[in-house]
């Protein structure tokens, strides 16, 4: 059974409301490979598993034998079981990973890593290729290098490469319409192809050298630059020779920082799985073309009572569900059913994948480094957890709550004189900031600058959705603002008939200085001002400042996008090429607005009817 047909079958079965007879279900169960799905009350998916023999595996749950506390807790909720038969165990493994990724069942190992990692892209479809950061599908024509574990690591690499090869990073519309070189040229991070400061063939050679270097052929790239330096010196072009000398020095520095001693280069992911005090951590180190690109620590959830091989198998299938699989995976714990997992990864990637637990040489040193990073990340997380619990204890004491809060949320509004208003909602728990739960709201149908109405709308939309989805509500909600904002937040919760949430408004006080905030709580006769060094105030400031940061970045992005949209986009028949032709012909939007019908028709691609439409739009 293919993945698509399996999912369609699942959707059809979910619509069925027939009573479930467990005994009859087990008696008629097939012995073929496939997946099984366990549902609780309200058709809530509790667990997805795969099996080589469905009858034997599913029956084992309901026979009289010992189970872990986690499994017993799940079985107590199971009201319905469904199976999907597949051709092979490998196909079942892939389908299991897809369903876990989509539905996040509460009793499966969950990996909170849905993001796509960034790549460095050098496009080759243009005369003067651009170097850029790229996420998502690789549809553009060019060379992709990565993935990088974080945008910061990629940006740092791009800066070093700009210094060495001076490739342009500007977008195509900017590049095509420049009349003078930009700041990047002035600080010697771009060779100025937009205004003809470099010949096409010279730029092409720089691009080829950059590609050689990124592909691991650094010695070849440096040798080529050395030849160009010597040639320039022989022609008495000492300025060009000095530039090539500086390029070689920059590349040597990059080699010192990034090179991993490995014969023959290659693409590897080094995966170290470590457990301490019942908590698992997985550290993935990315090595591409023999060069270390960095690493990332991941903390799988719902791993109680599981052994390392099971955790590793669940991790590999989920992690590479939406990511490129390198040709070599170095791991410290072999996964359960390793041959099946390898076969599934090969089928998914379309190329050979070798999984190995290194025992000697450079690969063992890489594994030791990944293991050290994993232990460090786990201990750092433990320290953060202690700090997070202390944070919650301080808030519990300050607000006199009967129980320790598990979730705190904070709202803030950001706009520029009412333009492009955005509300932020940040979430904190015992482990600190829960960034995957952050949300932004583009404020709609509100008078510009009305922060009171904006807060009410954001609170209503946030908790209306959580209420509809049956998600947990926070114990404490902070509002960046005074009594007015607080009252509107109360009104939103009252409309939703939600009570039991501790509200608190945080206003900046008369001096608007940090440490002088006024705290407004419903039921208090007046606002309170805590000492600047009060631990509870410091916690509230930290959460409020994070909401402020998140709101500002969202607002700036929305404002920038709205200001980049041209009035010409609202005219039917005007696409990107015609818009650019008009702006180029008349020197900007004002020139287009002032142009007559005859002038408009002289622009390539603008016929009489379209010219009339443009003229009518502005007049």
From TrEMBL:
Signal peptide: none annotated. Residues 31-109 form the GIY-YIG domain. CDD domains: GIY-YIG_UvrC_Cho. Transmembrane segments: none annotated. Keywords: Cytoplasm, DNA damage, DNA excision, DNA repair, Excision nuclease, Hydrolase, SOS response. The keyword DNA repair applies. One of its GO terms (molecular function) is hydrolase activity. It comes from the Bacteria. It is found in: Cytoplasm. Its main location: cytoplasm. PROSITE patterns: GIY_YIG, UVR, UVRC. Residues 219-254 form the UVR domain. SMART domains: GIYc, HhH1. InterPro entries: GIY-YIG_endonuc, GIY-YIG_endonuc_sf, GIY-YIG_UvrC_Cho, Hlx-hairpin-Hlx_DNA-bd_motif, RuvA_2-like, UVR_dom, UVR_dom_sf, UvrABC_protein_C. Residues 270-493 form the UvrC family homology region profile domain. Belongs to the UvrC family. The UvrABC repair system catalyzes the recognition and processing of DNA lesions. UvrC both incises the 5' and 3' sides of the lesion. The N-terminal half is responsible for the 3' incision and the C-terminal half is responsible for the 5' incision. Interacts with UvrB in an incision complex. This is UvrABC system protein C. The gene is uvrC.
């Amino acid at each position: 059974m293919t993945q698509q047909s399996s999912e369609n079958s699942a959707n059809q079965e979910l619509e069925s409301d027939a009573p479930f007879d467990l005994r009859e279900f087990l008696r008629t169960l097939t012995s073929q490979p496939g997946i099984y799905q366990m549902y609780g009350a309200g058709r809530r998916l509790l667990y997805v598993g795969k099996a080589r023999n469905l009858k034997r595996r599913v029956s084992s749950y309901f026979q009289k034998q010992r189970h872990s506390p986690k499994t017993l807790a799940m079985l107590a909720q199971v009201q319905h079981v469904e199976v999907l038969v597949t051709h092979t165990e490998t196909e079942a493994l892939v389908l299991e990973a897809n369903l876990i990724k989509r539905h996040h069942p509460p009793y499966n190992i969950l990996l909170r890593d849905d993001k796509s990692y960034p790549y460095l892209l050098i496009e080759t479809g243009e005369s003067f290729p651009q170097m850029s950061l790229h996420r998502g599908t690789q549809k553009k024509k060019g060379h992709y290098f990565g993935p990088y574990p974080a945008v910061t690591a990629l940006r740092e690499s791009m800066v070093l490469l700009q210094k060495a090869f001076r490739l342009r990073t500007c977008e195509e519309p900017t590049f095509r319409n420049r009349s003078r070189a930009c700041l990047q040229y002035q600080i010697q991070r771009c060779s100025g192809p937009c205004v003809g400061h470099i010949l096409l063939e010279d730029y092409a050679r720089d691009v080829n050298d950059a590609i050689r270097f990124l592909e691991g052929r650094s010695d070849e790239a440096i040798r080529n630059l050395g030849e160009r330096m010597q040639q320039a010196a022989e022609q008495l072009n000492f300025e060009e020779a000095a530039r090539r000398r500086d390029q070689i020095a920059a590349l040597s520095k990059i080699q010192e920082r990034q090179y991993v001693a490995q014969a023959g280069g290659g693409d590897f992911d080094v995966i170290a799985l470590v457990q301490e005090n019942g908590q698992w951590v997985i550290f993935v180190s990315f090595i591409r073309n023999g060069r270390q690109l960095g690493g990332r620590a991941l903390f799988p959830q719902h791993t109680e009572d599981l052994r390392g091989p099971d955790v590793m198998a669940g991790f590999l299938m989920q992690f590479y569900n939406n990511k490129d699989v390198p040709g070599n995976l170095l791991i410290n714990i072999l996964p359960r059913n390793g041959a099946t997992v390898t076969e599934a990864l090969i089928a998914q990637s379309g190329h050979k994948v070798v999984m190995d637990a290194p025992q000697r040489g450079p690969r063992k040193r890489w594994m030791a480094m990944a293991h050290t990073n994993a232990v460090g990340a786990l201990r750092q997380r433990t320290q953060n957890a202690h700090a997070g619990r202390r944070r919650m204890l301080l808030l519990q004491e300050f607000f006199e709550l009967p129980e320790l809060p598990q979730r705190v949320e904070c709202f803030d509004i950001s706009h520029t004189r009412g333009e492009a208003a955005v509300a932020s909602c940040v979430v904190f728990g015992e482990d600190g900031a829960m960034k995957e739960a952050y949300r932004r709201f583009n404020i709609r149908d509100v008078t510009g600058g009305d922060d009171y109405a904006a807060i009410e709308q954001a609170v209503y939309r946030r908790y209306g959705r959580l209420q509809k989805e049956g998600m947990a509500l926070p114990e404490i909600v902070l509002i960046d603002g005074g009594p007015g904002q607080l009252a509107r937040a109360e009104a939103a919760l009252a409309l939703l008939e939600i009570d039991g949430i501790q509200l608190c408004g945080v206003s900046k006080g008369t001096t608007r200085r940090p440490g002088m905030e006024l705290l407004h709580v419903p039921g208090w006769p007046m606002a309170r001002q805590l000492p600047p060094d009060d631990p509870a105030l410091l916690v509230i400031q930290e959460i409020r400042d994070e909401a402020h940061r998140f709101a500002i970045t969202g607002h700036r992005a929305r404002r920038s996008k709205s200001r980049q949209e041209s009035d010409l986009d609202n005219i039917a028949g005007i696409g990107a090429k015609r818009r650019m032709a008009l702006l180029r012909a008349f020197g900007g939007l004002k020139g287009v607005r002032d142009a007559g019908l005859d002038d408009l028709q002289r622009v390539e691609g603008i016929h009489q009817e379209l010219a009339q439409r443009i003229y009518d739009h502005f007049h």
